[in-house]
Write a structure and sequence with these properties.
The protein is of the alpha/beta class. It is 30% helix and 18% strand. The chain is elongated, with a radius of gyration of 21 Å. The relative contact order is 0.21.
Length: 376
């Protein structure tokens, strides 16, 4: 199937690892965006069956929460999700191994020229920015709980150019900190990762002279320590004094790790869901996309007050029209996405994962994209 590109409306390899499933009882199913809580619209048939997804580990807690809420309202539905990473999720979706994918970036326009085996011939895909979260820079230094860093110093720490924690560049930004004479151990993702893609996208945009590797999902520098998945990076930093890494902020908060405030304009901004939502709200939709493809072009160099620029927008990806092998799953996927985009679903995920709920304006656009999904 070749995907055409028209004007925007406004805007895995194999499944392995953990499968998140939660079951409960209730009756009925959400038939459209008017019934976001999962209750049946009049005369709507009850949902039953299974759908599987794969992808971004950043969304793992949120997806678990959404799955539990959706299945509470739909006792005969099973949703499974393998947090194998964004790259694996996109590959699995393209190969027709799963009905939906989670990804910390949208498909690139050139990738949209490929084939998506789950989709009907001629169908477009939809990409929904339903999970917004800051990426925290985490570190482990005895006697130091907070650090201020700018983009260039951050880049040099992760490339290995800055090798010691008492380096003058760090000291200049943190005059009151007692920085130890200790080697820096930068920790990065070993796997292909959308979190890496968003982090390097920030470095490439905000510190192009210090970070010369562009925006990439596979770590390009032969230095530091490689760790598998979000959990691997978090554990390596937590266990290694002198380490610094990057991870979805929900995991940083969960583990009580020390984090960095990033220089934006003339101030240092700590991560927060509100600061992450602010940069998304001020960023445009990407051009050259299909009607339901809501890819966002994040403004990583914003100097506006209260904006935290190291943020990931994680997408849920589905077919606008599913092929014959997935046709019976289409109503479940559609209703599941409607629940995720609903105020109830977003607030539940925010409470569990610490992400920023989507705005009402973005919800309107997302619901219009979900409405494009064909069910028979």
């Amino acid at each position: 199937m070749k995907l055409t590109r028209i004007a925007q409306i406004g805007a895995i390899s194999a499944i392995a690892a953990l499968s998140l499933t939660a079951c409960a009882a209730n009756e009925g199913a959400p038939a459209d965006s008017a019934a976001p809580t999962g209750s049946s619209a009049p005369d709507a048939p009850a949902l039953s069956g299974e759908i599987a997804g794969s992808g971004a580990s950043s969304q793992e807690v949120a997806v678990q929460t959404w799955t539990a809420g959706f299945q509470t309202a739909n006792a005969d539905v099973t949703v499974t999700y393998d947090p194998a990473g964004s790259g694996a999720g996109r590959e699995s979706f393209a190969a027709g191994a799963v009905a939906f994918a989670g990804s910390d970036r949208a498909f690139k326009t050139e990738e949209l020229e490929g084939t998506f085996a789950a989709c009907a011939d001629g169908s477009n895909i939809i990409e929904l920015p339903t999970y917004i979260s800051p990426i925290a820079i985490i570190f482990n230094l005895e006697g130091v709980d907070k650090l201020n860093l700018d983009a260039a110093t951050t880049a040099k720490l992760f490339t290995g150019e800055i090798k010691n924690w008492n380096d003058p560049a760090i000291a200049a930004l943190n005059p009151d900190a007692k920085l130890p004479d200790l080697a820096v151990n930068p920790v990065h993702r070993a796997d292909k990762s959308g979190t890496t893609g968003n982090f390097t996208d920030y470095l490439a945009a905000a510190a192009p002279e210090a970070w010369t590797y562009d925006s990439v999902e596979e770590w390009p520098v032969q230095s530091g320590e490689a760790a598998q998945g979000t959990s691997g990076v978090v554990n390596s930093v937590k266990q290694g004094v002198g380490s610094i890494g990057y991870a979805d902020a929900s995991r940083a908060a969960e583990e009580g790790l020390s984090t960095v405030a990033i220089k934006v304009g003339d101030e240092f901004v700590e991560y927060s869901p509100e600061a992450a939502a602010a940069v998304v709200e001020k960023s445009p939709f990407a051009e050259g996309r299909t009607e339901g493809d809501l890819a966002i072009e994040l403004d990583r160099t914003s100097s506006e007050a209260g904006v935290y620029p190291i943020v990931l927008v994680s997408y849920l990806i589905a077919c606008q029209e599913y092929g014959a092998d997935f046709a019976e799953q289409a109503p479940i996927v559609k209703s599941y996405l409607q629940y995720i985009a609903s105020e109830e679903g977003q607030n539940a995920a925010a409470a569990a994962a610490g992400n920023a709920p989507i705005t009402a304006d973005l919800r309107t656009k997302i619901n219009a994209a979900i409405d494009l999904i064909v069910t028979k």
